[in-house]
Design brief:
The chain has 417 residues and is mainly α. The chain is 76% helix and 0% strand. It has a single domain, classed as Sodium:dicarboxylate symporter (Proton glutamate symport protein, Orthogonal Bundle). The model has no long low-confidence stretch (mean pLDDT 86).
């Protein structure tokens, strides 16, 4: 296996998983045997995410030790995230209006999927509101936040703790050494866990294909093609322009993160690659403090792929029901998506939950989501890749804007790949 890189191993797992799922389509034994393997892999990754974020962020913040500079980095990051996600929503609305993926779709040919669990989550999220989301960034109990994996609360505490370590000078050095050692050890553990990735991918894809089958894509083929086409356009054109402005290339970034992007695509989980993305972006020349802050924060505030998909899906459902949304209604949809996509980040099935919380604001029947829930996993795979790539690029952009990007280190690392 050593002759084959991780990307090839994951690809082999993907192909085998699709083959097994297609052969045993509708067989519940596939889920019984394969789901535990996929679950173990996801759990292994979740197990290491919080220790890596905490340790790298504390070490990075303590190295800076300047509240004013950290505030500046945080402000730039949030503004950048808001601009890029807004562009993604506008692109999604334009793509859906131009290509009309929902026009002429016969709803009688479509299978409905139960979305009650998403409805309950959406109702809970709507009650909590946008302001409460910001209140919850401050944890009542850091151990509870660590246990739940509440990333924004963990980041908030880690930044304050890092500043505290820097403020006490010599006394803080043993603490700093402990967290530096923790970070190094966790990156080693990450690399060991990644050896299990091809098996995790095989299991997760096998379960998905055996449940829904490839035939479920046919009636909604136009939607799938449009979502994938819009995602590719967003990566090449929008992220490509941003990367060029930042003095790098989006294709260079794709080459560096090829293993992580393939893993994110096959597992539909950006969390599975968070530790490796932080590690690689640091090797690519981004300072530790920026990488360990920007990338995890982006997982809540910079879901480019998710917002792009949500805009397309909303218009698709309206078109499926024969509704023509006015310009005012589409602007309303844009503004609501801008808020809801941030307000309930981090909950399971976030894109579906955001859509449920949004569609009613412009009178689109939320029942329409039941028709596309069956292929959501296929669409989720594409939007996860865009989310990961967008957050990785954000680390470079913020590093460049702060004049802290190490281009020599970045070129050396790129040449070594």
């Amino acid at each position: 296996m050593k002759r084959f890189g991780l990307a090839l191993q994951i690809l082999a797992g993907l192909v085998l998983g699709i083959a097994v799922g297609a052969v045993f389509y509708g067989n519940p034994n596939v889920t019984a045997y394969l789901q535990p393997i996929g679950d173990i892999f996801i759990r292994l990754i979740k197990m290491i995410v919080v220790p890596i974020v905490v340790s790298t962020l504390i070490v990075g913040v303590a190295g800076v030790g300047d509240m004013k500079q950290l505030g500046k980095i945080g402000g730039k990051t949030i503004i950048y995230f808001e601009i890029v996600t807004t562009v993604a929503i506008i692109l999604g609305l334009l793509a859906a209006n131009i290509f009309q993926p929902g026009a002429g779709v016969n709803m009688d040919q479509l299978q409905k999927t139960d979305i009650n669990s998403y409805v309950e989550t959406a109702e809970h999220s709507q009650h909590s509101g946008f302001a409460e989301t910001f209140v919850n960034i401050v944890p009542k109990n850091i151990f509870e936040a660590l246990m739940k994996g509440d990333m924004l609360a963990v980041i908030f505490f880690s930044v304050l703790f890092g500043l505290g370590v820097a403020a006490i000078g010599e006394k803080g050095k043993p603490v700093l050494a402990f967290f530096q050692g923790t970070a190094d050890a966790m990156f080693y553990v990450t690399n060991q866990i990644m050896k299990f990735a091809p098996f995790g991918v095989f299991a997760l894809i096998g379960v998905t294909v055996s449940k829904f089958g490839l035939a479920s894509l046919i009636p909604l083929g136009k939607l799938v093609l449009l979502v994938y086409g819009a995602m590719i356009f967003f990566i090449v054109v929008v992220l490509g322009i941003i990367a060029k402005w930042a003095g790098t290339s989006i294709f260079s970034l794709i080459k560096i993160l090829k293993d992580e992007l393939l893993l994110a695509y096959t597992t539909s989980s950006s969390e599975t690659v968070l530790p490796r993305v932080i590690e690689k972006m640091e090797k690519f020349g981004c300072p530790k403090v920026i990488t360990s802050f920007v990338v995890p924060t982006g997982y809540s505030f910079n879901l480019d792929g998710s917002t792009l998909y949500q805009a397309i899906a909303a218009i698709f459902i309206a078109q499926m029901y024969g509704m023509q949304l006015s310009l005012t209604e589409q602007i309303t949809l844009l503004l609501v998506l801008m808020v809801t996509s941030k307000g309930i980040a981090g909950v399971p099935g976030v894109s579906f939950v955001v859509l449920l919380a949004t569609l009613g604001s412009v009178g689109i029947p939320v029942e329409g989501l039941a028709f596309i829930a069956g292929i959501d996993r296929i669409l989720d795979m594409a939007r996860t890749v865009v989310n990961v790539l967008g957050n990785s690029l954000a680390a470079v952009v913020i590093s460049k804007s702060e004049k802290q990007y190490d281009s020599v280190k970045g070129k050396a690392y790129f040449s070594s790949i």
